[in-house]
Specification:
The chain is of the alpha/beta class. It is globular and about 70 Å long. The protein contains 16 helices and eleven strands. 46% of the residues lie in helices and 11% in strands.
Length: 398
């Protein structure tokens, strides 16, 4: 694909940036579009993964069919099967009539399943059946239905780790990862892309609201482009619009543009050093810890390996426990079982598991220099769980 063709695609889908990784992702999407291969799009939250399925659909033989996007993480677990596959009247409380699911609605077209790692295990099994032979059964029915849908999935979590911890089916994982496209994080893209995106978001917002356009001083541009953007493009868009909405003023004969300096810009950027673990951010976007911090985590890792060995022996001694070699992160902060129902050995085992969980999280946070988003993605748990454990001071050492 030559530069002109690539730019035409960017213009058509409102994509801004010239980073080589971004270009490669777009080119791969166009290359696989004419096929019916299942595609998995990987990337952090907020990087713009949703644009690639649109490109694939528009350049495929299914472009005249429907394109539906579904956020799997936004569907309650109890209704996800009915949402995806439909249901019969009376299938459950509230099912007052028959309902088509997304697979039936998208028949002949493309179905984009975002946050596919959030699907329950039983739904994963049903999805695998659709991928293998195009068959599904509506909730409350015994009739096998057929559908002809191309599946494009996206994830912001490490599915390989989810497989290792038993949260994602291995057979479905390999079925999805035949073609995988990675969308780069904003901090890994060409730094010029950051300012290009800021200008686009700010200009669009200003024109929509009749405000003066915003420009940045050279110092402010340097600060903007060297910021790590943990929330990626979504965060940049929100900040660009906030700056324009607050700092700008209505267009007048005497003013069509305002300039923002570094001091003003800093007020809108969250402090990168305001983390819950000691970490220093290097100028090139990498992370580093001082020697004292490293020693703390080295000791935690050493203790962790011993505790994991003990934990495996405890789990292995129980007949009902699975023979797992990879410890799972479990959130015991919401356990509702009365403590008086547990005997002393169970209490000790539970405390051991809790401590192991905390140290697993500490180890992963150390690996990612205190970046909670990355640690949560690798461990396959929510950021909220890590924040809660930190708030409880179990990982703060207080």
């Amino acid at each position: 694909m030559d530069a002109q063709d690539l730019q035409r695609i960017k213009n058509k889908f409102d994509i801004v940036g010239n980073d080589s990784s971004l270009n490669r992702a777009i080119e791969t999407a166009v290359a696989v579009a004419p096929t019916d291969l299942t595609v998995l799009i990987a990337g952090e939250s907020g990087v713009g993964k949703e644009v690639l399925p649109q490109i694939i659909h528009q350049y495929s033989k299914r472009r005249t069919g429907k394109y539906l996007a579904v956020n799997c993480g936004g569907i309650p677990e109890g209704t996800v099967n009915a949402e995806l596959f439909g249901h019969e009247k009376g299938a459950f409380t509230g099912a007052i009539g028959e309902r088509k699911g997304y697979f039936e609605e998208a028949n002949g077209g493309t179905l984009f399943l975002d946050e596919i790692g959030e699907l329950p295990k039983d739904t994963q099994a049903l999805l695998l059946r659709v991928l293998q032979n195009g068959e599904y059964i509506k909730v409350g029915s015994s009739k096998v239905e057929k559908t002809d849908v191309r599946i494009i999935a996206a994830t912001n979590v490490n599915l390989a780790y989810a497989v290792a911890t038993g949260k994602f089916r291995e057979d479905l994982y390999y079925r999805l990862t035949g073609i995988q496209i990675s969308m780069p994080s904003l901090r890994d893209r060409n730094r010029d892309d950051v300012y290009l995106l800021f200008r686009k978001f700010s200009t669009d917002f200003a024109e929509k609201n009749g405000l003066c356009k915003v420009s940045l001083t050279h110092e402010a541009i340097n600060i903007l482009t060297n910021y790590r953007w943990p929330g990626n493009i979504r965060q940049l868009k929100n900040i660009a619009e906030a700056i324009t909405g607050i700092e700008s003023s209505p267009v007048s004969r005497s003013a069509e543009r305002i300039e923002i300096n570094a001091e003003t810009l800093r007020r809108y950027l969250p402090d990168e050093k305001d983390t819950l673990l000691p970490a220093a951010v290097a100028g090139n976007g990498g992370g580093s810890m001082n020697d004292a911090d490293k020693q703390v985590f080295i000791k935690a890792i050493f203790d962790l390996s011993q505790r994991v060995d003990r934990l495996e022996r405890i789990v292995g001694s129980r007949e009902e426990a699975p023979a797992a070699t990879q410890p799972q992160i479990m959130d015991y902060s919401r356990r509702e079982e009365p403590e008086e129902q547990m005997g002393e050995p169970e209490e000790q085992n539970l405390m051991s598991i809790r401590k192991t969980n905390d140290e697993l999280i500490a180890r992963c946070l150390a690996k990612h220099s205190g970046n909670i988003k990355k640690a949560a993605a690798e461990l396959g748990i929510s950021e909220r769980t890590i924040y809660r454990k930190l708030k409880d001071s179990k990982l703060n050492g207080k």
